[in-house]
Amino acid sequence: MRIVLVGPPGAGKGTQAAYLAENLSIPHISTGDLFRANISQGTELGLKAKAYMDAGDLVPDEVTIGMAKDRMEEPDAEQGFLLDGFPRNVSQAEALDATLKSEGMTLDAVLDLEVPEDEVVKRIAGRRICRNDSSHVFHVTYSPAKTEGVCDVCGGELYQRDDDSEETVRKRLEVYHTQTEPIIDYYKAQGLVVTISALGKVTEVTQRAMEALKKSGQD
Questions:
Q1: Is residue 185 a contact partner of residue 165, using CB atoms and an 8 Å limit?
Q2: Distances from the Cα of 30 to the Cαs of 3, 22, 26, 34, in angstroms?
Q3: Is 136 helix (H, G, I), strand (E, B) or coil?
């Protein structure tokens, strides 16, 4: 089964991708993992990407697409894959279609995680990270620290990352609406989009997604 996962920042794509990939027995392929793997392994595409990133420039679509193509050709992806963070725009979606077609493959579904904008802001802007250990994460509403501003685990100071400020989150949403959201219409025209609510517990959303995929006749 070949799936593309889309949704705004804060929709829980990474979490859901991991659960869904496990349930469906297919690899979870994220853009972040692709970049890290290629850069750490010193591949030709990784060196190209690093050069752009070091210069503060965006990595061109063809480099990202090349990485994704190489990953999709690995043995564990023979029975399918779940793409998370790619494609990010219509040109990447068109390139993905062309790549799959050249290999005699097509996508089975595009899973759209739907979350109200105010909820996205609440989820991300409410995060607090421990300065001593970034793996200690709290949320002012959903998982507050026992003492405000103090990490329950080590007593370190909790802070809000610049990327998590409301202003930054709203800018990220603007980019999503402008660049990524149009791929939903692109895939709707192909009858591939399955939209579910990403509100509720993680397990509830996963179950909702699995049922939606089955009902769509794609599973």
A1: no
A2: 12, 14, 13, 6
A3: coil
| Total residue count of the chain as it appears in this document | 219
Contact by Cβ (8 Å): 183, 89: yes
Q: Judge contact between 181 and 89, C-beta under 8 A.
A: no
H/E element holding 206?
A: helix 202-215
Q: What is the pLDDT of residues 70-88, one digit of tens each?
A: 999 999 999 899 999 999 9
CA atoms within 13 A on the CB side of 39: 14
81 by Cβ neighbours in 10 Å (0-12 / 13-18 / 19+) ranks as buried
What three-state secondary structure class fits 50?
A: helix
Name the residue with tokens 């930054």.
168
**Weakly modelled stretches of the chain, pLDDT under 50:** 218-219
Q: How far apart are CA 47 and CA 61, in angstroms?
A: 15
Residue type (1 letter), 140: V
Instruction: Please confirm whether the linkage preceding 87 is cis (ω < 30° from 0).
Output: yes
- DSSP annotation of 58 reads P
Q: Which of 22, 190, 7 shows the shortest CA–CA distance to 108?
A: 190
Structure-token pair, residue 184: 């939903």
Burial class, 205, CB count within 10 angstroms (exposed 0-12 / middle 13-18 / buried 19+): buried
Beta bridge pairs of residue 159: 129
Evaluate if pTM is beyond 0.85.
Answer: yes
Catalytic residues: 13, 88, 127, 161, 172
